[in-house]
Amino acid sequence: MPNVSNIVKTIQDIMRKDAGTYGDAQRLEQLGWMFFLKIFNDREKELELLRDAYRSPLPAHLRWSAWAADDEGITGDALLDFVNNTLLPKLKTLTGAAGDKLSALVRTTFEDANNYMKNGTLMRQVINKINGIDFNASDDRHMFGDIYEKLLKDLQSAGNAGEFYTPRAVTRFIVEQVNPRLDKREIILDPACGTGGFLTCSVEHLRKQAKTEADERFIQDCFSGIEKKHLPHVLCMTNLLLHGIDIPSNVRHDNTLARPLRDWTPKERVDVIVTNPPFGGMEEDGIEANFPAEFRTRETADLFLVLIMKILKPGGRAGLVLPDGTLFGEGVKTRIKEELLKKCNLHTIVRLPNGVFNPYTGIRTNLLFFTKGQPTTAVWYYEHPYPNGAKSYNKGKPIRIEEFEPERAWWNHRTENEQAWRVSIDQIKAGNYNLDLKNPHISDTGPGDVDHLLPEYEKLLAQIATTRAELKAQLQEALTR
Description:
The protein is α/β, with parallel strands linked by helices. It folds into 3 domains: 4-135, N6 adenine-specific DNA methyltransferase, N-terminal domain (Ferritin), CATH 1.20.1260; 160-430, 3-Layer(aba) Sandwich (Rossmann fold); 446-481. It is built from 17 helices and 9 strands. Helix 2 packs parallel to helix 11, helix 8 (168-178) crosses helix 9 (197-207) and helix 12 packs parallel to helix 14. The longest helix is centred in the C-terminal third of the chain and has 31 residues, at 450-480. It is globular and about 80 Å long.
């Protein structure tokens, strides 16, 4: 049997020969919708066997099995013509009976899909390779799950600022500590769900608790997600299909922040929010007007924090990734933090070291855990160290779930130690709600005292002035020659 890893590598090699797929972003978008159709087709085959009344939302000629499954099927210009002028236009406008979730799912998945490939013969080669993966076979599906993780990492390195892949270890640790409960029938939301890492991790977490068919049926619909950008949304759908979600229609392609905060109703509140809101990004003009005047900012991560406070149920729990800037920022950030500590119990901040999101950003990040409904009386901090011998993380050596063992052991039996310390709300208020607090157990010589620093600073300024004068003289001499 062919190795799935080799199949995916071969597909990428074929796509590199095509003039239209000239970069990672184009290749991954192309692969995204093609994999979606193949996975969807394999799931439909399974559903047709299990359910006598199953009807595909796709017209017969648009199903993968009709136009792609035959290795000797249409190719070259005929294939390009079919994909560009029949397949994609029809999928973008697919209609079904009122309330038909499957038709709506396919339509939203394809509404912004593009075919970048310009060579129909190469496209046929890619399709034939994709046919080598059977997504109904558990071995293939599990191995593809690992490959898929790698593809997502490739996507993130092709992405823009603010679009970061959340390392699986971080996703899993957050979900484990927030601990969505199946027996309590808790509803989960990721309002910035990207490619679905937190949602699929939550599904895995709940499956470990499942005992009955009713439990499994609940898992199919107990979560929702919203993603602003088309490509991550398609990849999220594919990710959920891979994780056995039959109709992942409760993940919307939308901008969560475009909706006025006051329009979120009590009925829409959720028990659990796990997310990594985009940081380092700015929202378009006017988005901040959807928020109360005292919390208006264009900083995406801050707006999501305000939103999360609003849409958690009383007693609801959140775990999220936030950059250092939110912790130490002032002005609007201070007011947001004051509100958070007043309305929620911010019980834990795990401070991650530099490089967790390398190579996409060097920004330092933190994991915040809070429960809505009771004010904060104290915040526990835990400083996550690098593993022995490491000075940073990189693509080849990412953060691993095993590194969180000390936090897991400490979580329910908290005492101060070299990595952990407790700060009272009075101290935080006295510091004007600055949450960027250093580990008191690590001696930090700091930058030095002012009496020492000022002369050093003045000496540096003098050196800069001298260098500038020398450059200016050399430039004038060169111009007068």
